Amino acid sequence: MNDMKAWLDFWNEDHPIYVNETHRRIHYRQIAIDMLTLLPARPGLCVLDYGCGEAMPPASCDAIFATSLVQYLDRETLKSLLRAWRERLRPDGELIVADVIPPDAGMIADVTALLRTGWAHGFLGAALAGLVRTLFSDYRRLRRQLGLAVYSERQIFDLLRDAGFTARRNAHNLGFNPRRMTFIARRQI
Question: How remote is the C-alpha of 142 from its chain's centroid?
Fold first, then answer.
């Protein structure tokens, strides 16, 4: 079984990553709020949240979001997707690659972000219990066996440039993990 399929199977099953419904709701709400801050305010915007919908015809998207995705992809798959996303963007469109894990941020950063979020939103007990469940879940086994792809800021800039983008790092990551990175890329002309 290839690595990406193993991760897809995990995410498509019931898993302990969201410790309760409050955590899931708050997480998705924060991602949506963060996404909206990056989008221009104009009617008729075509936005693709990759992994949550079908790819549209070439040059049809104003923005494509790839959030919490690249850590599950090998480098060749990521390169291929970057080229495909570039084809789907309108000439003035933007690709937002979010939640990229840098080499110096590991599981401790993830645990800290979860506990901080649980404390701030009233589900700290559930967060602690969720960490225990995760300790005995397939997630821990997969993360240990397959690992997660990590990229330095320079590596992401190089991958984006090689795929035909100019990019900048956003001041804030999407979501609750400030140790991870978000990049905004535009097609090179």
Answer: 18
3-state secondary structure of 90: strand
Contacts for 91 with CB less than 8 Å, ≥ 6 apart: 59, 187, 189
Helix (H/G/I), strand (E/B), else coil: 103: coil
DSSP 174: S
CATH class of 3-187: alpha beta
Residue 96's φ and ψ, nearest 5 degrees, are -115, 115
d(CA 55, CA 160): 19
**Sequential pLDDT tens for the chain (189 residues):** 477 788 888 878 887 788 999 999 999 999 999 999 999 888 889 999 987 766 688 889 999 999 999 999 999 999 999 999 999 999 999 999 999 999 998 788 889 999 999 999 999 999 999 999 888 888 888 888 888 899 999 999 999 999 999 999 999 999 999 999 999 999 987
Secondary structure (DSSP) of 9-77 = HHHHS--SSS-SHHHHHHHHHHHHHHHHHHS---TT--EEETTSS---STT-EEEEEEES-GGGS-HHH
CA dist 154 and 132 (Å) reads: 35
At 167, phi and psi to the nearest 5? -145, 160
Measure the CA angle with vertex 176, ends 122 and 168; round to 5°. 165
